[in-house]
Amino acid sequence: MIQGSMVALITPMHADGSLDWPALHKLVDWHLQEGTHAIVAVGTTGESATLNVDEHLAVIKAVVDQVNGRVPVIAGTGANSTSEAVEWTQAAKDRGADACLLVTPYYNKPTQEGLFLHHEFIARQVAIPQYLYNVPGRTGVDMKPETALRLAKVKNIAGIKEATGDLERAKLLIDQAPASFAVISGDDATAVDLILLGGKGDISVTANVVPAAIARMCDLALAGKVAEARAINDQLMPLHTAMFVESNPIPVKWAVEYLGLIESGIRLPLTPLAESFRAQVRAAVDATGYAHKQSI
Question: Does residue 214 belong to any structural domain of this protein?
Fold first, then answer.
């Protein structure tokens, strides 16, 4: 089972929006050196919405090749078209991904039965571990716990990234799902509490900035070391908050650029972090005590 700190990796870009492959390779190596337990490629934070198909699959392949089996690679392959999600999931498997992360279909707003049939169909078509991804604030559709629990019994469905921050919901899923079904936080601010309830890790935006701290925090929480895990989380809370002063991944890309790790590239319709928020993000990064400016 994949567990611990799973960075929702940003996709580095040049100022003109083209992909920065050398920076991507170096970021992956940096995360491995810092102790990140798994890498999520081309999720929401990786700007999957604005990468074309060739770029999307090329980023997956590049991350898989760079990781070279050292940690699991989870590929974002969700779509609001079931047939397209099948194609992307199969393509990620063909490129060596260890698992896939599939966001609930967005915009077309399926029913709960539609959500079940969508994910069940993909799981039956592609033999790779698949993680459900529930983030209603972005998709406009909420996978209810009863639907997730039905899917937890389907072969190849390995867990859920629950990004609502609702700990009561997380506890229900943890208590009622099979032991083989991993409940993973998609909300940095509540990740420690979710893990302490029996969750398996954190698919983390903040880990892009302070990977060693998030990895240590997850290790402590998984070991049941409550006070120590919460102490790190309390120290990081201003950074967790700052990562969402504008739409993700706008703040996190600026923060990683501030650390000297990437250039300033981001794709429209997203824009660089507004000047009015930069002091807050900078202060949050500096205050952690874990972030260090460098050039990789």
Answer: yes
